[in-house]
Here is the input.
Amino acid sequence: MIVMLLHSHGTFSKQIYIMLHGFANAVFLIGLILSIRNAVENHDPDIKKLNTIENSDERNILIKRQSSAVSGCILQWLLLAVALIFIGFGAPMWMGFALMGLVALKLFIEFVLSIYYQDKY
Here is the structure.
């Protein structure tokens, strides 16, 4: 609704509206999926108990953490590759440096979290 209201006033360019529509649709679908999942869990207590056990299982927690670490590593290399492509094809330098800055931010956050979890455990 907000995106359509902004579009009717002609506030932003067409590409921004397309991006906002995609984002709004993604948020709507995630909310719909979570609502359906909650309704199913509230309807059947056995499913809720099974999901609680699955979510607290140490092996599943380890798998989720490992997959998050691998996806972060892949994202880091993709950002670096896109930054090099931007710089190689003559895009504005700030775009490449912004992507490299995101990689540096990710590495800094990993460093801080590793220190935090070493002290915690």
Observations:
- Helices lie at 2-9, 14-43, 45-56, 58-88, 93-120.
- The chain has a mean pLDDT of 82.
